[in-house]
Each structure stands twice: as C-alpha cells, then as structure tokens.
Design a protein that fits this description.
Elements (H helix, E strand, L loop, with lengths): L18 E3 L5 E4 L2 E4 L5 E4 L3 E4 L14 H9 L19
Antiparallel strand pairs: 1-2, 2-5, 3-4
Length: 94
C-alpha cells in the first residue's frame, strides 16, 4: 500500500496533529507543540491548543496576540466617529 511507511514514524501511536486554518487569522494547532523558527530557535507550548501567527504583526511571534484584529479595524469605519452631515433636501414649495 502506498500510504503505509516502511519504517516507524516519530510519534507512532499518537493521533496526527490537527491544524485549523482561518482566514483572516492564525493557524489553530492542537498542542502541545514545538515550533522551530527560521533562525533555528525552538519554542514550545504545553497548552491544549495554540494560535500561530500568520500575519507577522504579533509582538509574541510565533504566537498570535490578535494584532491582525487591530489592524483590520483601522481600515473599517469606527463606531462613534462623526460622519459628514447630509445636505437637507430642497423644499418643494410652489
């Protein structure tokens, strides 16, 4: 069978890690996890689920700190801000 490895895999006997993708937003990964960064540094979390940043705006990278939400709100209209007043309709007086 093509999907059966010839050699045992690391973590054999454990269920596969599940990653949920949300757009826009972080990758949600069932933990515990270890993440190897570009520079070779390994960071780990023992939590049952972690959010991995995909926008790179997080101050706690690679962990998501919801910075993507703050940036998205700046682009949208903010409630409570004054809007331009509409001009009154001209009177239909005879």
């Amino acid at each position: 069978m093509p999907n059966v490895p010839a050699e045992p895999r690391p973590g054999e006997g454990r269920p596969p890690c599940r990653i949920r993708v949300q757009r826009p937003g972080p990758f949600l990964v069932e933990g515990p996890v270890e993440v190897e960064l570009e520079d070779g540094t390994v960071v780990s979390s023992d939590r049952f689920q972690v959010a991995l940043c995909t926008c790179r705006r997080s101050r706690r990278y690679p962990w998501c700190d919801t910075s993507h939400r703050r940036t998205a709100r700046k682009a949208a209209d903010r409630p409570g801000e004054p809007r331009a007043a509409k001009e009154p309709a001209p009177d239909d007086a005879p």
